[in-house]
């Protein structure tokens, strides 16, 4: 069956378009996720307007529209108060395995647990023994016991480690889960052992707990016919200090979480809703919300052609949904920018594999909406940084958004495409498309005069095989940049592992008719992919590639994770003055 292909580049005279005559546009503007803003060229005929409306209507295939659900609003407060006197729905205590140690009379040795247990008549110790609760990571128990100001007491296991940020974020998530189950509106969170924490550690711990709670309470129900509104309204963090510095860190956690939730929702949105054009519109909305520090440029296919982005446009050629090249720029509200950074994200809103179509068990074609997870990380970081407003740093957020589809206009195996730096690529596999889009995005980033680039992409299954579903691989020739990003990930709690850039593997990427092929053999697939990207980065620029194909998606919860956003924000802050 023949498909109608509309050439958007002949219709649009600019990246911004406005129309009010069509009911399609009226309907789209009333849909939060699809809020579009257009300006038609005076030369556009009514026929062209109708064709544009038909093309736009494809973004609502299946008549699916996300419901306008607001992210949860939780009030956080840091307090120094006796746990016994706190009044509310749930008093949650984070405990290590060491904290759960008992004496010969089966009584707690930890002072805080001992005090709580004495007010509960020994029932806390008794119940923890009966339920075989030992404080291991992942364990939790919530009990309704009389004797305290709180209605329920919860023990949340932190495992053996008391300093891992990930453990404190998990504590917040566990408390959020308990609050959902009991429909609690207010909770308090404390640690059984906090006396060993330094002042800075207490700030970081409180921030991680708050972040975990917000992310734990959030559920993306935009595409469900019914949704439950969370009851949790307030969280008191006890025993980790008070004051303006702590309040500042809690506000920081809120800003980062808003970026993570935004990133998760981008990844979760199906490809019939989140097209390249809608992704560009979401980026534009971020710039509009924080226009004191963010500006936006959206390039259409014709403008990308003028910039000689043949590699990117080759991938986009088969889709009825046109490509949109997204460039957000952050500049501090005052003072000069001493450092220029770029964050580049892979933006395949759907990846069919092209003519090398994804087939067979394990191909995960039904999940290929998450192939824009790198762009979600970049745009989520932009949203967070637009609120935080770090001084002394300029940041470019770059996404070459498109779809990898199949049609008579599409790229074929064996085709040769030319990237914007003049290098030619023999396409020996159309399913290795992400690196083709990133090639032109990296050249563009270097042309912005940046000193450091971090790109993020759901690039290879090989990296998932090597590191599993929870760890992203990082590739960089710069030891200094590796130290910076790994240090940021230690604060964020996200797991990264540095992988080798083995130059000898480049032999498998050589072509007989072009400068290179776009994929080598199966051995070392994540490494050869990174070596491919390296060909499009200026040698004077420090560069890192993050392959996040594993941690972009939580298969157990069937949802995006927002991976990378926390680390990117921390890294940018470390580079600010």
How much helix is in the residues? 25-40%
Enumerate how many helices there are, as a single number: 16
Instruction: Report the sheet-strand fraction.
Output: 15-25%
Q: Report the count of strand segments.
A: 19
Structural class: alpha/beta
Shape, principal axes of CA atoms: elongated
Unreliable residue stretches: 1-59
Distance between the termini: 58 Å
Mean pLDDT comes to 90
Rg, Cα atoms, Å: 25 Å
Major beta sheet summary: 8 strands, mixed
Strand order of the largest sheet: 7-8-10-9-13-17-14-15
Descriptive report:
The chain is 34% helix and 19% strand. With 577 residues, the protein is of the alpha/beta class. The strands form 4 sheets. It has an 8-stranded mixed beta sheet, sandwiched between helices. Helix 7 runs antiparallel to helix 11, helix 8 packs parallel to helix 11 and helix 10 runs antiparallel to helix 12. The longest helix has 25 residues. The radius of gyration is 25 Å and the shape is elongated. The chain starts with 22 loop residues before the first helix and ends with a helix.
